[in-house]
Every structure is written in C-alpha cells, then in structure tokens.
Amino acid sequence: LYANSDINKFRQYGLWERYAELYPDNDLIYTVGVSDYHRDWFFAHVTRRVSETIFKATTWQIIFPLEDVIPSANYTMRMALASASRAEVQVRFNNPNLNNPHFRTMAIGTDNAIARHGIHGLYRLYNIDVPSEWLRAGSNTIYLRQSKHDSPFQGVMYDYIRLEGPPQRL
After folding, report:
1. 158 has pLDDT over 70
2. CA distances to 123, 134, 139 from 72, in Å
3. CB of 77 within 8 A of CB of 67?
4. Is 133 helix (H, G, I), strand (E, B) or coil?
5. 45, 155 in Cβ contact below 8 A?
6. How many angstroms separate the most distant Cα atoms in the chain?
7. Domains defined for the chain, CATH in brackets
8. Are 142 and 59 spatial neighbours (Cβ–Cβ below 8 Å)?
9. What is the pTM of this model?
10. Confidence of residue 108 (pLDDT cuts 50, 70, 90)
11. Do 151 and 115 meet the contact criterion of CB atoms below 8 Å apart?
12. To pair with 110 at 20 to 30 A between CA atoms, which of 119, 120, 127, 168?
C-alpha cells in the first residue's frame, strides 16, 4: 500500500485485507455514543483471511442503549447496503448464538464493489421488523454476520443502519 506517498495516495488496492490487520482476533465492535465512525468502522464488512486459501466469516457488533422498550410494539431496523459481493448478512438481536437469525439477506450481490472500492455497487434497502421482545431496557447488541467466506472479495458495504422506535403516543 502507498499510504505515505502523496503521488500514489489513491493507489490503495487491497484495502479489504487490512480488516484482518486491524481486527486480528476479534471482530469489529461499535458502541453508539462512544465509538467514532471515522476510526471505529471499517469501510467493508468482509471475510477474515486465516491462511493463504482459507477465509472466515465475520460478525460485527453494534452496542446501543435503550432507556425502555415499549411492550408489544414493533420497531424497525433499516439496513441500507451500498454494495454487496457474493455475500449474506445475518442479523441477530442480543443473542449471537441463535441457530436461525432474526433476519437474513440470502445470497446477494455480484457488483464486485469491494475490489473496486465502492465505485459501482448496487444499492439495497432492507426494512426489518423488530418485535419489542427482541429488545430490552438497557444495553442491546445487534450482531451482523457476513456468513459467506470463500474469498476475500465476499462482503458488503453499508450505507447506513438505523433502528427506529414505534410512534410515540400523545
């Protein structure tokens, strides 16, 4: 990489490989209100290379507080993807070990935007219904697992992730 060269500063092919350097043992954990997306959020949710030909699925965590949870209400998680390349995102709330995720995208994407640094990805928006039973007052965690892991190019680039509460009653 040419990180310290003004002439070559745009020649950064292979940045997805930095994920394993930045997170060698544990995956990304982002805490709302504490973390800074400039330094604590990686540009692509990719696989982790464990050897020359073996890649591992990765699970990111988003930790966030909820003052209280409105019983029997429906929340909505909006997950917008700027690109996807032969990926599958699985979403779990507060339990990373559920056999079946609360939501999954299924296999998506052939736009190869990770290798091209996001210049031509196909935009996708998922609106995920989140029953109040999946949440709790206090600390909550959303687990995002990119489960496809045959190559370094499999993954997604998030545009935004937003959790919306139910309408407030007056």
Report:
1. yes
2. 32, 11, 19
3. no
4. helix
5. yes
6. 59
7. 15-164 (2.60.120.260)
8. no
9. 0.89
10. very high
11. no
12. 127
